[in-house]
Amino acid sequence: xxxxxxxxxxxxxxxxxxxxxxxxxxxxxxxxxxxxxxxxxxxxxxxxxxxxxxxxxxxxxxxxxxxxxxxxxxxxxxxxxxxxxxxxxxxxxxxxxxxxxxxxxxxxxxxxxxxxxxxxxxxxxxxxxxxxxxxxxxxxxxxxxxxxxxxxxxxxxxxxxxxxxxxxxxxxxxxxxxxxxxxxxxxxxxxxxxxxxxxxxxxxxxxxxxxxxxxxxxxxxxxxxxxxxxxxxxxxxxxxxxxxxxxxxxxxxxxxxxxxxxxxxxxxxxxxxxxxxxxxxxxxxxxxxxxxxxxxxxxxxxxxxxxxxxxxxxxxxxxxxxxxxxxxxxxxxxxxxxxxxxxxxxxxxxxxxxxxxxxxxxxxxxxxxxxxxxxxxxxxxxxxxxxxxxxxxxxxxxxxxxxxxxxxxxxxxxxxxxxxxxxxxxxxxxxxxxxxxxxxxxxxxxxxxxxxxxxxxxxxxxxxx
Length: 465
Description:
By secondary structure, this protein is mainly alpha-helical. It has 19 helices and 4 strands.
């Protein structure tokens, strides 16, 4: 598709260039830079000027030039981030570690949370993890799965920060298992956390800089390819599961109901060894890589923004308010705020905009903002996004040890994944992650207290006997 850059395109290019200069001048790898890189990735259609992705095999495709309003939204997000970054550097210059929070046994507690979630999910989901179709798996996942998958990145980076190699290896195994069954979230945020934790490598000579950049490039390309080849990889060892009604969608929000017990009537497991050769052969074809780009998540996500603007799609502010209220801790039990029936933005747009799509599409917060309050609401969302990154940058710069590592993981869920979630889903993810950290911190303190009070007595009694 040949697209001639419009005035709005040049404004977007100019905004990107100025923002890039701001971050190059800072010479700092932190959450604010992560937000800018994430914006570049998800605003990729703005750089090429068009959107194109397949609805599925034999279902057709979506192709369209990028709407001027979409470029305006992208420019608002990027420019707001640049201005906020400049203000942050002037008001809160980076200092050394100043927050001292005791986190005894935090890594071990996170490992306990991860294992509890993993074992419980195996007992309730079982062979459902190997369902060939992702939609069939999504219908079977439950809160135990989310406990395991959200704990794994936290546990991995925390273990690296405390040099707990056994826990790190176990966590990494679960992250790869999550990737195999079809989910990239935990792998993506782990990659971001590692980039932040090892960011100093970029400034320690060309040798470490090349290693650092090569690692990012390899992992980034791999995650793009995994989306394209996910079905082929999963098909190697899988089960043709029957369809059941799904309590959640692809975007990652916690389901409202649990899978009651492990299914005992699933078809037998099928191992297709020839699929390995077929998948490896796909990697030798140029079309695999071009399709990975054209069908990438940025294309799918920005198509939503494009159609929201082209169709002047509007939603009542009540839906956004209810989504925000879902973030109130104990909202239903303490304050009577029952927002359990609140719909995701996807529930409104996919059937209307993309009825031919054969997969669950991710959300777009900027499209959601535009549908509620046009460009002014996009600006408000942009300010919230930039301020959130600023706060995370301050925490990341002033903490140390496993807690700092946990902040790096939160940066991934906020800085990157906000671009493909609506408010409801983003709040659901962040609440779960923060709850896991808080409960693990308290559990670690309890283990430490018990260790100090009980173990000396045991040793003393043993000595007397």
